[in-house]
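Re: the 389-residue chain
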Amino acid sequence: MNALTAMKNMPISFPGLFGDWELNIDPVAIHIGHGIYWYGIILAFAMLAGLYLCMKQSKHYGLTEDNVMDMVLWAVPCCIIGSRIYYVLFYLDLYRKADGSLDWGAMLRIWDGGLAIYGTVIVGVLVALIYTKRHKIPFFAMTDLAVMGLMLGQIIGRWANFLNRKAIGTETTLPWRMKLWVTSYTSIEVHPTFLYESLWNLIGLLLIVFIVSKGRRFDGENTWFYFLWYGLGRSWIEGLRTDSLYLFNWELFGQRIRVSQALSIVMAAVAAFMLVYNIAVKKRGEDITFLRRIIAGPADDSYGIEVAKLAGLPGNVTKRAHAVLRQLEANAPGRSNTMQLDFETVEAYNNPSVPSEVVDKLHSVDIETLTPLEALNFLYELKTVLDKE
């Protein structure tokens, strides 16, 4: 199928929904140098929104905001490069000169467009593998967090395609069809596939945040659900697009193979298998996530100190952190422990360097009713107070 190319300086409209109303936004937001494009601005905003979500959710996965920021500093440039390489590899003929040689300059002109989400995902996974191995963090705890930010980024990022008049589908007469112009006098009405994917990802993100993550039984559950959900959605949406990347000149059943569609189908199948295997075969009915192991692990002195370090607490409050965890152990189902906390023996209380607000918090918390998540949140609250000092 030949790709439909819309003119970027012509109006966009939805005649079936809004009649003659049109939107005509210049793809270039600021005309300086090569120009600062709305495409780039929206992608940057998408990245920042995803980062913000991950940082706010990090404590629910036994990770810190510093863990997230450190990995993002490596992931963003690497993923941009990976996304570009992936796109160029499967559209290599677009980057050849008249004599057939490769046009390396054109390959580097990223401002002309040409990024692929699967290149981002592949490189992102590699960066996460390296980072988590180096910092001794469970890989799937990190990816369970990362896929939420990635999905939010995709939700917002697809609107960059809207302003760039890219990622459009075949012609249609459906009520929500999008009208674009291919010449100054010729228009087409097509599937707004950018919108389909944005809405599909929005539903997926809501499912992860409010359902899947709430009952998460093992590290990797969010991750495999993301690949299942995104794979299912992308596989049918890709079939509507006219600008697909193709797997060279290979064919299946007389049709050229769309790279993203084939990869989506394989990805969804693998993800479905992993979810069934972990839930039904291994019968992981109890919470064995990294967060649970942090909170409900062996309650010895070194463990309490390690958890305090995870929350970023200074040494003079680690004893209280340890005490919180020990009491939590006492409240865990199936255990009995009559340990009493002797407030006068907690060094942090008598240390004048500890801010009074921290002391108040240590006195006010009702440790006997703390849940594992609340215990970790409590530690982070102490860190927030101490960081202000």
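The CA atoms of residues 42 and 245 lie 23 Å apart.
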